[in-house]
Amino acid sequence: MKFNDLNVGYFFEAARLGGVRAAADHLNVAPSVVSRHIRQLEDDLGTLLFERHKKGMTPTDAGHVVLDYYRRHITEQEAVILSLEEMKGIHRGHIGIVTGGGVIDDLLEASKTFSQQYPNITYSIGIHGTNEIVSAIIADKAHIGIVFYSMPNPQLRVHRTATQPLYAIAARGHPLANAKQPISFARLTQEKLIMPDISFGVRQILRDAEKKERCQITPYIESNNFAVMVEYAIAGEAITIQPKFSVRKELENGSLVAIPIQQQNLEQAELHLITHQGRRLGEAPARLLEIISRTMPAFL
């Protein structure tokens, strides 16, 4: 039994993007081209790789086997390329980073030195919730992840951890801004909150705290856009729950204040610097990882 990796590549993109049309748009070809390559691969393997139904296409068990093969193939191919690049030194390449929106200012600060030393290295920075960050790292879609509240996972390697307590972030004129003592968790149930959805680490910490404290927080506004959460807090329309480092500039210029919350889960929240366990990083991402670990303010 033989099959063509070109056909596997078309199948992989259709599975990754959720359908033939999306894969065709991504690859800049006609949908019929993608379908033809997938049919050829199924004929070569003698099995169906997709279950086709009204809502779309999902990989069969055989399809998942082929997807796992192709992911390993991509990783091994990348390792060969990285070995050859290392012989030439860090002169060019691309680094994928996934993180949450509140980390960007600190990430920029940490990456300045690297960018000055290696100006020809390009980046992609994906902004996601905790669940998507972890998935991207495990699937080798990105080299480096900076994630809030990552549960222990044997597929992840944690390079650096920093305790970053969560605070109630409010406008200076908000009634809570005058609190002389840490507020209780139950006090949050009386406030208008703007929060991300449950795929984000901050919300997952709050969920665990809700169970422990036996009270429920219902967001006034739910948004996964970090800038939106900050702007609503500055305007006094709602408060948000974030670590201090994510709103450092706003705390320094006085537009926001951080009120401590007396609750163990929130006080012990952690930020993690992660990579895929067993993945060999090239010299460029490995060097950037070391710089982030050593100089990023949130980890100091």
Automatic annotation (TrEMBL):
InterPro entries the UniProt entry points to: LysR_HTH_N (IPR000847), LysR_subst-bd (IPR005119), WH-like_DNA-bd_sf (IPR036388), WH_DNA-bd_sf (IPR036390)
A Pfam entry, by short name: HTH_1
Keyword terms: DNA-binding, Transcription, Transcription regulation
The HTH lysR-type domain, residue ranges: 1-60
Annotated signal sequence range: none
Highest taxon listed in the record's lineage: Bacteria
Family: Belongs to the LysR transcriptional regulatory family.
Entry protein name: LysR family transcriptional regulator
